[in-house]
Amino acid sequence: MKTLKIYEADDKMISLIKDNYSVLQSLGAFGISLGFGDKTVAETCQMNGVDTYTFLAVVNYTRNNISDYEDDVRIHVPTLLHYLKASHTYYLDFQLPSIRRELHESISQDDAMGKLIMKFYDDYSREIRRHMKYEEKTLFPYVESLLAGSPLSNYNIETFSKHHEQTDQQLRQLKLMIIKYLPGDTLRNSQLTATLYDIYNNEEWLRMHAEVEDHIFTPAIKRLEHSATPVNVPQPGNSDVLSERERDVVIGVVEGLLNKEIADRLCISVNTVITHRRNIARKLQIHSPAGLTIYAIVNGLVDISNVKL
């Protein structure tokens, strides 16, 4: 059970875990080993080479929504960077495969719906992996260059903020698909319920991970930029909701139509269809037919009976 409390450096580390067992995930991401006995937070962090203030900022934000860190110069960027990198490794190497195994065991692989759900999950996995690998290849090296005093000239944190879309959208839609459309199977019901519980937990984990990046990490990097050489980078446009014509194109894709068939149906050119599809991918941050399918079903653009498997 979560306990609302602002944790401080002289609190016992074991008390944080007793109050909020999910702190265990944060410990691993910060590189804090278990076996700290009755040591305080400060003693435990010092023993593991972790900045105490930054550790507590993340814990207090993610557990109790303490959110006054955007102008806080005490945030230690190297500690936060290590935490984010380790969180990516945890999610990509452990959580994603673990949930997939649970799904595979709890749904039928012989019917069309079971296959569709697995396809959606694999598509989600590719999207979240692409998102996190982008940060690892672009954002994190940029931050390291700032820390080294030689900022890269082709990037800035504002560019990251513009591209930082929510990554839990497809996971949330997959969860709704399972709840709404999966046929009941009493033999697998307990397994499926446990899998859904884990999906809910993952959805919450992703949300808080993104908010730490937005409300603690990004402001800290902006402060680093202000103390370094200014960087000028063209800013991308804002993402808008889909237009009526773009929704028509999505429907065509979900129904399995080729670009030419969509063009014929809508009385437009193939090049226009291709342009619409590019705009749809940019706005929704969905880059595959499977992802568009789950988007269309959950948002009521198509009936599931019209889905092209």
The Cα radius of gyration reads 22 Å
Q: Give me the secondary-structure category.
A: mainly alpha
Helix content: 55-70%
Query: Which ranges are low-confidence, i.e. pLDDT below 50, for 5 or more consecutive residues?
Result: 229-240
- Secondary-structure element pattern, one letter each: HHHHHHHHHHHHH
Q: How much strand content do the residues show?
A: under 5%
Mean pLDDT: 82
> Which oligomerization state do the chains in this entry correspond to?
single chain
Count of alpha/pi helices: 13
Report, as a whole number of angstroms, the end-to-end distance: 41 Å
The counted number of beta strands is 0
- Report the biggest beta sheet as strand number plus sense, adding barrel if it closes: none
Shape: globular
Description:
This protein has helices spanning 13-19, 23-30, 41-47, 52-64, 77-106, 112-147, 157-163, 169-181, 189-226, 244-254, 259-266, 270-284, 289-298. With 309 residues, it is mainly α. Helix 4 packs across helix 9, helix 6 (112-147) packs across helix 13 (289-298) and helix 8 (169-181) packs across helix 13 (289-298). The chain starts with 12 loop residues before the first helix and ends in an 11-residue tail after the last helix.
Note the topology.
Layout: H1 13-19, H2 23-30, H3 41-47, H4 52-64, H5 77-106, H6 112-147, H7 157-163, H8 169-181, H9 189-226, H10 244-254, H11 259-266, H12 270-284, H13 289-298
